[in-house]
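Quarterly update from the structural biology core.
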Amino acid sequence: MLPKKMTIIRLILISCSVTFWLIFIPCVEGRQMRNLEFRGKLSSLHLPIATEELNNEQKDFPRFAEPIPNVTVTKGRDALLACVVENLRNYKVAWVSVDTQTILSIHHSVITQNSRISLSYNDHRSWYLQIKNVQEEDRGWYMCQVNTDPMRSRRGYLQVVVPPSIVDKETSTDMIVREASNVILNCKAVGYPEPYVMWRREDGKNINYNGETVEVVNGEVLHIAKISRLHMGAYLCIASNGIPPSTSKRIVLLVQFPPMLSIPNQLEAAYMGQDVTLECHTESFPASINYWTTERGDMIVSGEKYEAVSMENGYNQYMMLKIRNVSQKDFGSYRCVAKNSLGETDGFIKLDEIPAPSTTTTQVSPHVTSSIKKSGRNGKKPRQRPIDYEVEEWRDPDYDGDYTLVSQQTPGEICEDSGEAASPLRIKGIETIFLLFLTLTLQIFAARR
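Predicted structure, tokenized:
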């Protein structure tokens, strides 16, 4: 019986506790809500007063008249950052380097130990931060602060640009390579913004690059596979980043190869007494030693009989051998030789004899004259005249007649001047007229039939 009574008592106590909490807690929460509503009414009464006081205080605070402009300056020149503050009153202005968290100046005093930085101001309104001989480490944000509570500030960015320059230690120099080898030319450039690099030939010729013919090659590396003598020359590595001036470096590329020889005419001909020139063309680098020999192997030396000349144009050389007053013993073969440290080559030219050109001249006797007669004015007998190809006319100072040449007279004049000379011409004319008349008659007769 006792345990059952204890269980009933416990259940009664639990029920009483639950009933108490259900009645007491809503009462407490209602009181708390009423307290909060009362406090809210009080705070709403004080808010307009506090806002008005805050606005009045802000009107008296300093303010920035304009933003700090960003500045771009070339390395080595001077930079100027401006901060304009109105209504500064007793507050103070400070300049701070944001990136390094360094105070540069406070009001009229320069704090930093950097001798390149100075401060200037005007009318207690404009504050200028001056940086002389700007370096790349000066690039970054700069802040102008006013010691209000809370602090007020403006920021401006200093951009430092650097013209391109070529790093000689990391750039190729003049090179001498063997033909058919692979070549790599490097050109390292620095600057800000980062420069771009291109290659071109100094003489303006195109570059044979990876099987293509191009005017320029972009990039810091110029790779030429199986280089040939056509690649020989001076190359320019040009770096630019939009900041003047651009810069360049000249690199000379030399290609070594043994001599090669070509002969324009392997067979030459000349006649006795003529001057003749033999010619050979060679290509080589280093430059070859060139000379001529006879077919017996004797080296030819310039003198009265021979003149050996060699002209250079890059890796091309032009060999010429002039033989004066060719004689019988000069006919035969001649050998041109080119030799350098990488090899030797030669070629032969044969000189044959040809007949000398014939010179025929026609001589005219000066005594041949025309037989045309002409009467003189004074009844004198006219002299005979020379024919047309005579240079001078024969004139008699006592003769006043006409000296017109026969070739310059008309048939009528000839008939009038000389009956002897006109008779054959007149007979010839009659015969011609008779033949024409006979031909016409036959044609008319044939047409009627």
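The radius of gyration is 59 Å.
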